[in-house]
Amino acid sequence: MARLSLYRKWRPQGFESVVGQDHVIKTLQNAIETSRIVHAYLFAGPRGTGKTSTARLLAKALNCEKGPTTQPCDECESCVAIREGRSLDVFEIDGASNRGIDEIRQLRETVRFKATQGKYKIYIIDEIHMLTIEAFNALLKTLEEPPENVVFVFATTEPQKVPATILSRCQRFTFRRIPTEVIVDRLVEISEKEGVKVEEGALHIIAETSQGGMRDALSLLDQAMAFSKDVVTSKIVQEMLGLTDAEALTSFFTILANQDLKGGLELIRSALFGGKDLIYFMESAMQVARSLLVVNADKTAPLQPGEILLSRDRKDFLQIVKTLDSVYLVKIIETLAEAVQKGKQTADPELFFDLALVTLIEDKEKSNEIESLRSLVEDQNKKLTELEKKIGEGKSQVKQKYDVVTYWKEMLEKLKSKKDTLEFYAFLVVAQPVAFDGHNLYINFPETYEFHRANVVNPKNKSLIEAKLGELTGSTIKLHVDKTPGAKKDPDFLAKTQDVFGGTILKPE
Ligand SMILES: [Zn+2]
Fold first, then answer.
1. Residue 164: what pLDDT?
2. Cα 60 to ligand 1 centre (Å)
């Protein structure tokens, strides 16, 4: 005979073993104690959070030979029959399987018969939102005039799809996703009772993956046990789930620290070919980053979930914190969150992972660039202040009119793009722009380009060039070759200015 699954074996048999839904259980127990059982309940909540189990417990509580009681005995004929799924008074209908038409029809025919063994007839309709309109209408007629001692429990993962006419006749309970820690505790308890050795990290991964659903968590633990020979380790669980292992995650953060784009793209590729789930990879990396933030702020913070994913040695963890500051960690989380969101909507999350990586690495480079630019600007500002002081002393005045470098580049582009000026381009391209005030253009030729210089200063060429430049800019241009602007006023001025501006000189008036 096949081994009973953990989920079935450890299904809660008493209210006390339903985990993570205390608010629901307490209210139900109060209702039982004060005999205020209503005709219809709606249990809404994510899959695997205990809706059907609680419905069965309610049936037991109502029909136990010692009941109605908040503590069904689990021994009497009724309790055992319900546990074994063969009670003649408890009907389970799956709304999803054939959308319920025949079942609801049958329900209407039999609902008025008295309970066979127990005091109540209990109808549990799972995934009620899947019922057809006809089935809903038939159900509604029964709900409008409910027979005595009949209790309906409707379970749904999508309450918004249940017609309002049904909802208004139900007492509603919302089942919540079970917190990861609560799932872990339950898994620890069950593993101990099963005599199975497990690493706590493995249970954390299972709990995280099952996203608040105990049923999924127990199924995963079942699988992991089947995969493992001796101990259920994190590595086994990760392999089983096709998840990213600690090694790959560590590499990922090292790559970010080193701003190694090529390595990062290779890592994504090898994870993909290794059958890893890239969405999970990104989610895990986000969790590591989040934990790094916490540990960064407080080195004595308790063990964080991301530490379990990466390694259990805080030293390794702190090593990574050292290289990635909090601002960048936040950036990592934000960028990956966006990639995960987009990646989930496509069959190709790889693309979004790649893009996220490029963003993260370019950003770091950019912020380095911005940093060096900022110090450069500060430097220039200092020099400018000094220069202004000197100019003030020399009673000269400097006024910026044109950015000669930009102007020069544009001009060369224009000369290059036309056949009849291509020759001038060839001569002028080696020259260095010095100053330009809108009409007077000062350029220098390096000594090694005497041939070029000679061609430009040749009066015939010079006037042609001036005419062409004038055509292109729409104003009269006078070309000054190897001459110093403002030389008459202050022979040192050019040298001083050049020192400061590195070649871009403003013409004094
Ligand atoms: Zn009983």
1. 92
2. 7
